[in-house]
């Protein structure tokens, strides 16, 4: 079902301009657009040199907001390409007065435009769209073309932590990580979100209530 555009969307995003970078992607060629660096001065934005954790596809922001509160000594950058969804994360961050989150309103294909190589400690992929149709395989966020981007962003020894309810996507991702040369550190096929450095997402709670299993993978560069 088509999502209706939220009222005063552009105005509301502009009000949150101090915590979000809205990508100017007039160049529709994502690969070419990513080649022009526009590195964000994150140390200045956050006022410290704490480690960076990146969530790709943050949705309405529940995960990143709760993680930022739980880990105040970490800087969180959250990426979401759909501004109609992102506005809820922005306004949640403002309402809760969270200071260690910054947002990128952009597609994952251009993340290397904003981060210097080897600057991210951890990447979270929470319930990314599994895109089950074969023709959409290259759009999956764990396809090799995306893993090559993440591998450049992450520091040596950096982690990718992925959660999904889709078993086929989980198995596709696991093979993609192995083929890309990432070291698989942990695999769980019925994850209960019991670890201190984790919080439950909106999707995660709903899927558990439906009796679905949660799959989690942790890999290291």
- Strand share of the residues? 15-25%
Assigned CATH architecture:
3-Layer(aba) Sandwich
How many domain regions? 1
Q: How many helical stretches?
A: 8
Q: State Rg.
A: 17 Å
Helices and strands: which structural class? Answer: alpha/beta
CATH superfamily: Vaccinia Virus protein VP39
Helix content: 25-40%
Shape: globular
Order of helices and strands: HEHHEHEHEEHEHEHE
Map the helices and strands:
Elements: H1 9-15, E1 20-22, H2 30-33, H3 42-46, E2 52-56, H4 62-70, E3 75-79, H5 83-95, E4 101-105, E5 120-126, H6 144-153, E6 154-164, H7 167-180, E7 183-188, H8 202-209, E8 215-220
Parallel strand pairs: 1-4, 2-3, 2-5, 3-4, 5-6
Antiparallel strand pairs: 6-8, 7-8
Could you walk me through the main structural features you see in this protein, from its secondary elements to its overall organization?
- The structure is a single chain.
- The radius of gyration is 17 Å and the shape is globular.
- It has eight helices and eight strands; from the N terminus they run αβααβαβαββαβαβαβ.
- The chain has a single domain, classed as Rossmann fold, CATH 3.40.50.
- It has an eight-stranded mixed β-sheet with strand order 1-4-3-2-5-6-8-7, sandwiched between helices.
- Helix 4 (62-70) links the parallel strand 2 and strand 3 (75-79).
- With 221 residues, it is an alpha/beta fold.
- The mean pLDDT is 94.
Summarize the structure.
This protein is α/β, with parallel strands linked by helices and 221 residues long. 32% of the residues lie in helices and 22% in strands. Strand 5, helix 6 and strand 6 form a beta-alpha-beta unit.
């Amino acid at each position: 079902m088509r999502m209706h555009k939220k009222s005063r969307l552009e105005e509301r995003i502009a009000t949150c301009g101090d915590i979000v970078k809205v990508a100017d992607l007039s160049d529709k060629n994502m690969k070419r657009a990513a080649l022009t660096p526009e590195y964000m001065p994150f140390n200045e934005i956050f006022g410290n040199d704490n480690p960076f954790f990146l969530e790709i596809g943050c949705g309405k922001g529940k995960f990143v907001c709760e993680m930022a509160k739980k880990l105040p000594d970490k800087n969180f950058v959250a990426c979401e390409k759909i501004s109609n969804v992102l506005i809820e994360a922005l306004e949640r961050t403002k309402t809760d007065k969270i200071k260690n989150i910054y947002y990128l309103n952009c597609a994952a294909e251009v993340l290397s435009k904003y981060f210097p190589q080897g600057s991210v400690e951890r990447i979270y992929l929470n319930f990314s769209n599994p895109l089950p149709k074969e023709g959409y395989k290259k759009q999956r966020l764990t396809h090799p073309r995306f893993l090559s981007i993440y591998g450049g962003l992450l520091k040596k020894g950096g982690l990718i932590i992925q959660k999904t309810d889709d078993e086929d996507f989980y198995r596709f991702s696991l093979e993609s990580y192995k083929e890309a040369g990432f070291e698989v550190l942990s695999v769980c096929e019925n994850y209960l979100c019991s670890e201190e450095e984790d919080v439950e997402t909106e999707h995660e709670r709903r899927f558990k209530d439906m009796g679905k299993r949660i799959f989690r993978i942790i890999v290291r560069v």
